[in-house]
Write a structure and sequence with these properties.
Radius of gyration: 20 Å
CATH class of the largest domain: Mainly Alpha
Number of helices: 9
CATH topology of the largest domain: Transferase(Phosphotransferase), domain 1
Oligomer: single chain
Helix content: 40-55%
Shape: globular
Length: 296
């Protein structure tokens, strides 16, 4: 069933009834003793110590001793499917695949989270629920929170820090692409910042090839740019110059890459206009109906 991808070194595949777990060896005994196969019971027992990270659904963070915490991410559908699916998926092994790819990213020397375990729980075959556990990065904030903290009138020191962080993000993404990785949902919230150092996270629906095409790299870059544009319309402190600095740092000394990006940016303007129309409609809908979930 789970033989179509390699189990990373240092991990074990374990079955507990209808639950399959892919667990890092160094955490296996502890997690099994805690009954991690029944994740909801595990969280209830630790209710008093849980704090939450924001996302499509809140991600509980649970202490595991030694000043460390693990973050639990439940997989859920977006949009209308979220109301009908109740977190159930049809076939596949989503959390296992993300763990394997995350470990490959980490093993390539690219800053990311440390995956601890993936859980695949059959509900009624072929439906299942999935979760991913990772080690929490203390004091991390995503790029949205980082720019909100900087504000629209940064001090000279904050401005220098902001420029360095933007450059660091661009260089990290370039290394990510050069290693053959494609991010399935590259947006501001999926880049964490810790003391100016960026970390890429959330590799659901991501993949790796021997070499990414220019088209694939542009898709990732413009997905990130679209995220920046959307948040700028919500008054996030990110400017056109900030984005230009990012693109310049990403292209580096590669003149062909810069020229390709310039041509692509020109053709991107029409799609950008259409996205802005969509965001305007979304804002109107959300104003008239506050319970309406945001469009992706």
């Amino acid at each position: 069933m789970f033989r179509d991808f390699p189990i990373p070194p240092g991990f074990s595949l374990i079955q507990k009834g209808k639950v399959f777990l892919l667990i890092r060896e160094t955490y296996k005994d502890y997690l099994l003793q805690q009954g991690i196969e029944d994740l909801q019971s595990f969280l209830r027992r630790n209710k008093g110590t849980i704090r939450y990270w924001t996302g499509r659904t809140p991600h509980p963070s649970v202490p595991i001793g030694g000043g460390r915490r693990i973050v639990v991410r439940f997989y859920s559908h977006g949009g209308l499917l979220q109301a009908f699916s109740k977190g159930n998926y049809l076939l596949g092994s989503r959390s296992f695949r993300e763990l394997v790819l995350t470990e490959a990213v980490r093993s390539s020397g690219i800053a990311t989270i440390e995956p601890i375990a993936a859980i695949h729980q059959f509900v009624l075959f072929p439906f299942y629920r999935a979760s991913l556990l990772s080690l929490e990065i203390p004091e991390a904030m995503n790029l949205i929170q980082y720019f909100q903290k900087i504000g629209n009138l940064p001090s000279p020191e904050d401005l220098i820090s902001k420029r360095r962080t933007i450059r660091s993000c661009a260089l990290l993404l370039r290394r990510f692409h050069q290693a053959g990785f494609f991010h399935g949902d590259l947006q501001l919230k999926n880049i964490l910042i810790v003391e100016g150092q960026p970390f890429l996270i959330d590799f659901d629906r991501s993949y790796r090839r021997p070499m990414l095409s220019i088209k694939e790299r542009m898709r990732n870059l413009f997905r990130l740019n679209r995220s920046a544009e959307k948040w700028k319309r919500l008054e996030l402190a990110i400017t056109r110059t900030d984005r230009l600095r990012f693109f310049l740092a990403y292209s580096g000394d590669d003149i062909n890459m810069w020229e390709t990006m310039r041509r692509a940016l020109r053709t991107y303007s029409l799609r950008s206009f259409l996205y802005r129309c969509r965001w305007t409609i979304e804002k109107i809908v959300r104003t008239s109906n506050p319970t309406q979930p945001p469009l992706i």
